[in-house]
Amino acid sequence: MSTKNVTAPAVLPTFTATPELREAFQRALTDVTALSLVGKQVHWNVVGQGFRSIHLHLDVVVDIAREASEEIAERMRALQVVPNGLPEVVAQRNTLPTV
Known about the structure:
This protein is mainly α. The chain is elongated and about 75 Å long. The protein has helices at residues 19-45, 51-78, 87-93. Helices cover 63% and strands 0% of the residues.
């Protein structure tokens, strides 16, 4: 097998997020991560009339929030941004109202 006329694969340019975009992604990641945790907290503690349907709907909300956090974090990495979902970051920086 000859290696003549073989070219290296093209290297695609990488896009690096601006500081504003990095911060916006991090805020979104922090809030959807917090939403999944708050949703589970409410899910575990809901009582009374309509308990079952609320309980099941909260499972859906939690699943959506968890999927969103995964999507956001993966998009951040694709843009050369390091996602931070550490518990202390989520606890200190989320903008959700207190439950």
